[in-house]
Every structure is written in structure tokens, then in C-alpha cells.
Amino acid sequence: MASRKRWQDIARERKLKQENSIPQEWRINPPPTEVQNVMDVPRTCGRLNEHELVITEERDVEVILKHISSRKWTSLDVTTAFLKRAIIAHQLVSVS
Q1: Domain extents in the chain
Q2: Which tens digits make up the pLDDT trace of 68-91?
Q3: Residue 56 near residue 89 (C-beta atoms within 8 A)
């Protein structure tokens, strides 16, 4: 009978694989664990440029769609901006 891995070992391996999939240029230095409010980290971590901040801080989807359809923003720019912000958020909630 083959030995079975403990769920903790499997979880640790998956977390490492997930962390290694984040591009180096999108990695952040998470704030100390005692910091409870991390809402400003996307703005202050230096991973989003001003254009990406404007895109990801827009709350009205109609405005986003208007900017894409008028070619003020490209769909690639919008997708990349939201992906980067999601990866930043993920790093903040998935600390070891």
C-alpha cells in the first residue's frame, strides 16, 4: 500500500505552487500581520501604475465599458489592471 500524504502536506505544496505562479514583478511585501486595514495596499505597494489605479477604482461598469468601446482604454489594459489588483489582494489574504 502506497503511503498517503497528509492533507497539510498537500495544502502546503499547492500553496507553494500557487505562490510560484505569481510573476515576480507583481509580488508585494505584505504589511506586518498586526496591520488589519490593508485597503490602501493596492495604491501604495507600487505594483499598479496610475492608469491601472484609475481603471480598478472605477466603480461604474458602464463607465468602464464606455472607455473600452471608445478606445480610451483597451480591454487588455482593463483585464491586466484587474488581474494585478486581484493578485495583490490574494497575497494579502493568503499570508502564511
Answers
A1: 7-93
A2: 999 999 999 999 999 999 999 999
A3: no
